[in-house]
Amino acid sequence: MSLLLNTEISFFEKVYAVVELIPYGRATSYGAIARYLGSGGSSRMVGWAMNASHQKLQSIPAHRVVNRNGLLTGKRHFGGPSTMQQLIESEGIVVKDDQIIDFQNIFWDPLKELGL
């Protein structure tokens, strides 16, 4: 948690630190990450961080971050129209019509999993 409280680390870097903790085969939402970081109204900014993550040298599992309904809203930022879906499905998550099936059971809530 000390990383998240560190004011010298950018919001994007804090987002990346949380996203790196999402377990294989699970997904979370932009809003859940924003709430965990104490910025509940910053879901869109989390999305911008995910878009920018493709330019980083290290691999950020941005495909595990979707909207609150489990929709793959960031798919156009993955270099191909089906790349995000392929990445998520490679982890055993079922997607139909750009939406994670059974999202409630796949959902990883950083507030519950990581605590404060």
Describe this structure in words.
The protein is mainly α. The chain is 41% helix and 7% strand. It has one domain (2-114): Winged helix-like DNA-binding domain superfamily/Winged helix DNA-binding domain (Arc Repressor Mutant, subunit A), CATH 1.10.10.10. Strand 3 and strand 4 (99-100) form a beta hairpin. Helix 2 packs across helix 4 and helix 3 (30-36) crosses helix 4. The longest helix has 11 residues, at 43-53. The protein starts with a helix and ends with a helix.
Distance between the termini: 7 Å
**CATH structural fold name:** Arc Repressor Mutant, subunit A
CATH architecture: Orthogonal Bundle
Q: What count of domains describes the coordinates?
A: 1
Largest sheet: 2 strands, parallel
Summarize the structure.
Helices cover 41% and strands 7% of the residues. It is mainly alpha-helical and 116 residues long.
Notable traits:
116 residues; mainly alpha; Arc Repressor Mutant, subunit A; two-stranded antiparallel ribbon; 4 strands; 41% helix
Task: Summarize the SSE layout with pairings.
Blueprint: H1 2-5, H2 11-19, E1 28-29, H3 30-36, H4 43-53, E2 65-66, H5 83-89, E3 95-96, E4 99-100, H6 103-106, H7 110-114
Parallel strand pairs: 1-2
Antiparallel strand pairs: 3-4
